[in-house]
């Protein structure tokens, strides 16, 4: 619903901690939402509240819209400000509604007469508790439950996360709105062939080398070990698997399996790839594989669709929402079927083009303009 220009602007506050502190993940989501609303909902009056700032992560956001702790105790204890001291600043700034962009809200919003929205990204810690330390699980659970109880409206980035909130926490589904997200605009720009070749050379990829790209932290949930096992079963032996992501202890298991299968020359594990190299790596790939056991949304799938690359993704969580008709899907526990579909995508050029065309249509569902409109409608409905 478009904003009515005759009305006074709605004054909104946003949790911008991640926007100014996290290079990926929740940081990307926060920057995406703030940019989308600034561009496509100009009649909203936005303020971004951040305990600390790394301006290089969000250089184009106007400094006059950023609010940080002003008093000495909270400057020294920014986490305390974000949880307990922020509400007084919101009242001072005449904020009508506060949107917590990363699973949490400060205490006291309702008592201060400030409406609230919280975005919940996933409940992976509930579905896969063995992947998280006990204390972390308790903290995530308490924070998420408290935010859901306090919020007037809950936003989830997938239907899967909405279902999980209903299943695990018995949240009324009427209180939950699904609003998707897009990736960073850089993935939507065509990279020159010369630049793609330069980036490939930087990472030891030959100009004519066909490769499967997998982007994501190298951890058990991302399932790269089975992807390596699938590579060993592909009939083509001149295809490389390029895995880009931060290494965890799980990476040692992946390396060990690579050695056992004799794939040292066919798998590249790249751990410190700057974000500006990723679009070229995507656009130079033959296939993108993202076969996680579980995700809250699956931004690498969306990045691949924008990059014009065929995708193999996993069933069982939300990746079918992210990929739509632009991907093939496989049980993430079945490396044999994974190999079959990868071989299909590598060999069948018409199939690849069919998926690429379908993917370009599907990602329009995640456009900044559309998502800004959906969020604006939620805010207006709450305040007007």
Please describe the structure with a list of short key phrases separated by commas or semicolons.
single chain, 384 residues, alpha/beta, Rossmann fold, 2 domains, six-stranded parallel β-sheet, 16 helices, 43% helix
Q: What report would you give on this structure?
A:
The structure is a single chain. The chain folds into 2 domains: 189 residues, Rossmann fold (3-Layer(aba) Sandwich), CATH 3.40.50; 181 residues, Rossmann fold, CATH 3.40.50. The relative contact order is 0.12. It has 384 residues and is an alpha/beta fold. It has a 7-stranded parallel sheet, with helices on both faces. Helix 9 packs parallel to helix 10. It contains 16 helices and 13 strands.
In helices, the fraction of residues equals: 40-55%
Largest sheet: 7 strands, parallel
Mean pLDDT, as a whole number?
Answer: 95
User: What would you report as the Rg, rounded to the nearest angstrom?
Assistant: 22 Å
- Strand/helix succession: EHHEEHHEEHHEHEHEHEHEHEHEHEHHH
